[in-house]
Amino acid sequence: MADSLPQSSVLDVGDGPAVLLLHGTAPGTTADANFNRTIPALGGHRILAPDLIGFGDSAKPVELTYGPRLWTRQAWQILDERELDQVVVVGNSMGARVALSMALEQPDRIAGLVLLSTRLRPSQSHAQRLLREYVPSPEAMEQLLRECFVTDQDIVTPALVRQRYEVSARPGAHEAMQSVFAGLAAAGPGHTDEELESISVPTLILHGREDRVVPAENSVLLAQHMPRADLHLLSRTGHWLQIERAGLVNALINRFLTECTR
Predict the structure, then answer these.
(1) Where would you tag: which of 24, 181, 196, 200 has the fewest CB atoms within 10 A of its CB?
(2) What is this structure's pTM?
(3) Quick one: how far is CA 186 from the chain centroid?
């Protein structure tokens, strides 16, 4: 196919209504690292969890312009290759922006949206500076994990630091990450209020109150503009709410899936 994108690594497991999991954009990110506490809890569904192009085991070509437009095309290609007509999309951080784009482009194919830690408006923070300035080393990765993603510091184990660091230090990974940040800066702000108000699919919005990367106010504003959105703000929770509060988040997602795929 002439319009095909570079190779995507996709975890494709289970049977039942399809759920597409889209991770965020940070050094060392993969679909498995982002959703390894989510996937086992979503029994009775077919789970598709790709590494976005530029991340994990997916291709990292230097000539591409990275950003939400590319990843939205990737998501549709994954669904089209599998002839899936409808899906619930779970998007974390930048993955949530991609999920919103999908709902705007082909709303009839989106059974529901789950939006985790969604960035709606530009903001500057210490955490975002750490993400942009990261240079692969175990020490820098530990700082990133502790200061950006969690409030519960016990989550940041030596094994987690090593795993994320090793992914971030793979050949081409750091260069791709820098291209991603450049592409995101060029892409500009996210969706307009009018676009959000036009999205009529059932939507579950979750955000940690102590998110240092994307302030929770983003999701409050998002819920105000989306006519079928339910919002849950989680106390004592950071950007990685699907990891830090896995039990609660999984229960909320499963209840939502039951409602919109029955």
Answers:
(1) 200
(2) 0.96
(3) 19
- 239 is a catalytic site residue: yes
Per DSSP, 145 falls in state: I
At 3 the pLDDT is 67
List the structure tokens of 154: 């016990």
| DSSP summary character for residue 51 | P
Cα 116 from Cα 147, distance rounded (Å): 19
Q: Which domains does the chain have, with CATH numbers?
A: 10-261 (3.40.50.1820)
Q: Under a CB-based contact definition with an 8 Å cutoff, are residues 102 and 77 in contact?
A: no
Facing residues of 231 across strands? 205
Please report which confidence band the pLDDT of residue 2 belongs to, taking 50, 70 and 90 as the band edges: very low
211 counts as catalytic: yes
pLDDT at 1 over 50: no
Residues 6+ apart with CB under 8 A from 117: 24, 92, 93, 96, 206, 207, 208, 211, 213, 214, 219, 239, 240, 241
Q: Which two tokens stand for residue 39?
A: 């996937």
Q: Which of the following is catalytic: 23, 45, 207, 211?
A: 211
Tokens of 102: 């999908």
| Angle subtended at Cα 134 by Cα 150 and Cα 39, rounded to the nearest 5 degrees | 45
Among the options 93, 168, 179, 219, which is catalytic? 93
